[in-house]
């Protein structure tokens, strides 16, 4: 199973939204997905409790530092995906999850503050790569972006790319449907329409495809 | 995958291969050390089991008349406090009385 860890010590960066969008889109394409809710605030569990959990998705709650490594290992199987959602803090739980990742996604809003704090996740990954002597693929995904890309966004993206950071294109734009997921539960295909649903679905799917390509080695 | 997909990549779950990862305690320890270096610390909620240790670590050696012992015992039980709390209160009164 490829394990995707969604990590940033910045609160409100869009981690849980990224985890749910990615999980529901992959599940919609018939990939079995296990979502691990490692956040004591239980965002994913709240999402799962809003409506029937979509087909192909299992949500496990209350995963802690003590059982993260074991839990990921237990769901290790070909043809499936495990997605780990973490609290927006700098914790040892984050680093243990990263140690088991096939891909780490760091969502960040395109602001200097988010990028600066998000960069701590990237530094931690580099340190773990060295300590474990294993390459840990990682990528940044910009979240809550606007149709008109700001100067700040462009600047941050260029500087990340220059430092060799993989930035996923497309970003996850700011969309009512994406925040609506937590109000209604389910996925973009089952929820009542909010905003431009077609664009929201295309955005989420294109993003999920980019992640899939990286996992399947087609990137 | 629907025909509407403008991005033209189809998902083959079979291509999603499990890669073995080291889960040994040694690896976890290395991971924790890397975390420590970057300020990613243990934030797991600490379970406090049982009674917290009492701050009352001093001790007096007091033999008193049996009826006083009984009364102090009864009063402490009734109030749900340690007998030492009553002695502390009595001592505070004594100090106030004697300008200590
Ligand atoms: N692309 C988006 N479009 C619209 N709203 C979004 C988007 N991404 C995130 N949000 C909203 O922003 C808020 C924070 O997002 P989210 O909960 O995903 O962040 P997080 O990184 O998981 O936060 P935490 O650190 O608290 O776990 C939520 O209210 C969410 O609905
Ligand atoms: Mg979250």
From TrEMBL, chain A:
InterPro entries: DNA_Partitioning_ATPase, P-loop_NTPase, VirC1
A matching Pfam family: VirC1
Listed transmembrane segments: none
Protein name, per record: Chromosome partitioning protein
Automatic annotation (TrEMBL), chain B:
Record field: compositional bias (Basic residues): 45-54
Highest rank taxon of the organism: Bacteria
Biased composition (Basic and acidic residues): 33-44
Region (Disordered): 1-60
Protein name: Chromosome partitioning protein ParB
């Amino acid at each position: 199973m490829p394990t995707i860890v969604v990590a940033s010590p910045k609160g409100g960066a869009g981690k849980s939204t990224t985890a749910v969008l990615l999980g529901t889109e992959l599940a919609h394409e018939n990939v079995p997905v296990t979502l691990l809710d490692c956040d004591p605030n239980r965002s994913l569990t709240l999402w799962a409790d809003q409506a029937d959990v979509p087909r192909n998705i299992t949500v496990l709650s209350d995963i802690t530092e003590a059982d993260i490594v074991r839990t990921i290992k237990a769901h290790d199987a070909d043809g499936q995906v495990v997605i780990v959602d973490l609290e927006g803090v700098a914790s040892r739980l984050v680093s243990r999850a990263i140690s088991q990742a096939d891909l780490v996604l760091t969502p960040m809003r395109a602001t200097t503050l988010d990028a600066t704090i998000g960069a701590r996740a990237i530094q931690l990954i580099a340190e773990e790569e060295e300590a474990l002597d294993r390459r840990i693929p990682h990528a940044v995904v910009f979240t809550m972006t606007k149709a008109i890309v700001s100067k700040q966004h462009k600047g941050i993206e260029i500087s990340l790319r220059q430092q060799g950071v993989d930035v996923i294109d497309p970003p996850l734009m700011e969309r009512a449907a994406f925040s609506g997921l937590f109000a209604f539960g389910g996925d973009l295909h089952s929820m009542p329409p909010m905003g431009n649903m077609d664009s929201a679905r295309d955005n989420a799917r294109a993003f999920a495809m980019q992640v899939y390509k990286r996992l399947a080695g087609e990137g | 995958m629907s025909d509407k997909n403008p991005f033209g990549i189809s998902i083959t779950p079979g291509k999603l291969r499990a890669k073995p990862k080291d889960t040994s305690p040694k690896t976890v320890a290395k991971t924790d050390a890397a975390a420590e270096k970057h300020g990613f610390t243990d934030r797991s909620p600490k379970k406090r089991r049982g009674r917290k240790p009492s701050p009352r670590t001093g001790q007096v050696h007091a033999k008193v008349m049996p009826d006083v012992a009984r009364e102090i015992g009864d009063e402490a039980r009734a109030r749900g406090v340690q007998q030492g709390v009553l002695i502390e209160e009595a001592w505070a009164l004594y100090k106030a009385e004697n300008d200590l």
